[in-house]
């Protein structure tokens, strides 16, 4: 994030705190209105703050669950449409707050709501599959399992998985595939991770190899162990070295090796709700170590104790890592 954008975003978060304080008055409201009206960048930043606030509070889960799990009657279908329409409206009217919905199509988003296997933000699960394969679901992951007589299929709607495949006991052996919105991956006796991202899916292969076939055309490509690649509609990028610590999350930890602080915080932000930002002046700091994911606040405290940074909490859901102010001389 450019320094100017970061500063405006922080201003917006501070205004949010001022307006919701118990002692906020008409003068505060009028001052905020002047700030808000003075720049399109201010308005965009304000939408971002409102969106993160809405994401942190969440839509009440029970009405959505009742509608989405209801039987297929006309009344149930109407409730389902109403819930989805309301969620769409919430996401789209809060600007970047509809990040999940804006980053992938509505069909995949609704599929995530109804997925047979899922994890909440901050949760990690391990599943033993029917064929003996082991599957890990990272934070905020949604998928469906479809093991049929001719195919072993994992439909990944969002999030990230790590898969350690097993030999199929059936003869002939059924292919094992992972489908994302961007294409199909076929396991060739392997360990690999898959993460749909903005406009592409990231595949990292740690053992064996994986065949990549983009959804909208393009020749399939086999990616060997030790390499990773991004692929999207009709394209496969150039393979590059896989991060050997990229799957440390299956052991409930992040393990940076000379990782920039802003990149580390981007990873950490996936495991907590709300906004976790990094001031430009400390973004370049490098991290090495192992950080248990059980408590993200403890990780932030460790950063503050070991780096020249401070943790600024404007709200429970708005946290930024900033430069430690210079010590004043006595």
TrEMBL record:
<feature type="domain" description="FecR N-terminal">
    <location>
        <begin position="10"/>
        <end position="52"/>
    </location>
</feature>
<dbReference type="InterPro" id="IPR012373">
    <property type="entry name" value="Ferrdict_sens_TM"/>
</dbReference>
<feature type="domain" description="FecR protein">
    <location>
        <begin position="118"/>
        <end position="211"/>
    </location>
</feature>
<protein>
    <submittedName>
        <fullName>DUF4880 domain-containing protein</fullName>
    </submittedName>
</protein>
<dbReference type="InterPro" id="IPR006860">
    <property type="entry name" value="FecR"/>
</dbReference>
<dbReference type="Pfam" id="PF04773">
    <property type="entry name" value="FecR"/>
</dbReference>
<dbReference type="InterPro" id="IPR032623">
    <property type="entry name" value="FecR_N"/>
</dbReference>
<dbReference type="GO" id="GO:0016989">
    <property type="term" value="F:sigma factor antagonist activity"/>
</dbReference>
<dbReference type="Pfam" id="PF16220">
    <property type="entry name" value="DUF4880"/>
</dbReference>
